[in-house]
Amino acid sequence: MTGWLSIAGLGPGAETLVTPEVSAALNEASDLVGYGPYLARIRGRSDQMVHASDNRQELERARHALKLAAEGRRVIVVSSGDPGVFAMAAAVFEVLDAGPADWRALDIRVLPGITAMLAAAARAGAPLGHDFCAINLSDNLKPWAVLERRLRLALQADFAIALYNPRSVARPDGFARALSVMRGACGHNRPIVFARAVSTPEESLSVVPLGEAVPAMADMRTLVILGSSRTRVIPRDAGAFVYTPRSADA
Amino acid sequence: MTGWLSIAGLGPGAETLVTPEVSAALNEASDLVGYGPYLARIRGRSDQMVHASDNRQELERARHALKLAAEGRRVIVVSSGDPGVFAMAAAVFEVLDAGPADWRALDIRVLPGITAMLAAAARAGAPLGHDFCAINLSDNLKPWAVLERRLRLALQADFAIALYNPRSVARPDGFARALSVMRGACGHNRPIVFARAVSTPEESLSVVPLGEAVPAMADMRTLVILGSSRTRVIPRDAGAFVYTPRSADA
User: Which of B203, B194, B249, B196 has the alpha carbon at shortest distance from B226?
Assistant: First the structure.
């Protein structure tokens, strides 16, 4: 039997947000590869090999998965959210690009998933209803100067801005600097959404004016969305909705 | 029985990309509201009311759906892709914002879906593996000057850029102008992906250098992704992969 490698997105947490395509692929796999807590979300069968690894070992994990597929195994690499957004798909292609030429003949597929930004936006209303961008605030992978320049240009372009990985114990300061850049560019009244662990039992959501946002509102399980200049808040007893109108003139 | 309104994303086309959450909601609805071709993707039950409308009637459709929910109906508004990305969710909140105060007490939910950009990226490899933005090229909703300025800033910020609704019969010229702006900013070698009708029987994918891109490669069913300065192509017999490395220094 010929091996294959699929890089699959498990969505933000709830099983009801895993696509049937991903569920079918998980069922057909011989080997499940991924970060431990993501693998824990899957009910594997007893005949499936589970290869759990730590966070930040993406390239090693990708190499292991490609080797298994080259040996004829049916391999799934799991990602939270969508595998193509700040997740495992790019790591697999980085390793493929640098790897042996015969790996390129492998059957490699990316199976999309609901990325955190879409799940968070859905809970908040429709903050991404007009043009938007997604920025990974993790500075493990890029210098702060690059990040700050990109953030400033995104603010000038008047995108709604989704911020992934805003803050961790290892990087407590980056998000505070980002908040300061954002306040400098768009004042204190712009709505900002903090959506944590959407679709899991730990879900929480808050919408505040940018002037009231503090770094402690975010951690690594939080997705932050800053509205554009046109984003509006609809107050409600059941929690405000936030949306960005479709039209630039609306 | 209390009414509700859910705005649901059907994903890019294939049934295997519809989330179980959306399938369950479709099953519980009394009324299905949407653009005719999207409703045609659903196998409704005989006891469900179907309210089909034409394209570009988003606000009227949203108003109709809110009225039905206020009358106690269980209403689904369907969108292709994700309802929060250039789709029906923002239209519903625009109408809610301007509508009667008692509509705000309605049970309104947005059910996320696989948006075209994620489906296209998955087929191409991982072009959105680093920071990216999404721009709706439809100038029905914004003047070209706003759009061009945003595109230029996005290019300066070195985002990978997903372009929705690149070209229609009614707007044949905007995409040609966008290609010209993009070539001016990043030359002729930058990879650009044309992904049409991904996950449907009409699916096609092509990856070319920007210098070889011509407007006729896109229509309203095409999602275009321009790589960032770091995006790479992995040539293969089975069709090239395109990916953007996770790291700014990789």
Answer: B194
Do B58 and B106 sit in the same domain of this protein?
yes
Both B91 and B170 in a single domain? no
- State the DSSP code for A131: S
Does pTM surpass 0.95? yes
The sign of the torsion formed by the CA atoms of A110, B10, B198, B227 equals negative
Per-residue pLDDT of chain A in tens (250 residues, 90 and over written 9): 589 999 999 999 999 999 999 999 999 999 999 999 999 999 888 899 999 988 778 999 999 999 999 999 999 999 999 999 999 999 999 999 999 999 999 999 999 999 999 999 999 999 999 999 999 998 666 788 999 999 999 999 999 999 999 987 777 789 999 999 999 999 999 999 999 999 999 999 999 999 999 999 999 899 999 999 999 999 999 899 999 999 865 4
- CB within 8 Å of chain B, chain A residues 184-203: none
Burial class of A238 by CB neighbour count within 10 A (0 to 12, 13 to 18, 19+): exposed
DSSP string of A49-96, one letter each residue: EEEEE-TT-HHHHHHHHHHHHHTT-EEEEEESB-TTSSSHHHHHHHHH
Domain-located, residue A248 = no
Give the closest-approach CA distance of B157 to chain A in angstroms: 5
Cβ of A234 within 8 Å of Cβ of B96? The answer is yes
- Number of domains comprising chain A: 2
Q: How many Å lie between the alpha carbon of A63 and the closest alpha carbon of chain B?
A: 15
Is position B249 within any domain? no
Do B230 and B146 fall within a single domain?
yes
What residues make up the domain containing A146? Answer: 117-243
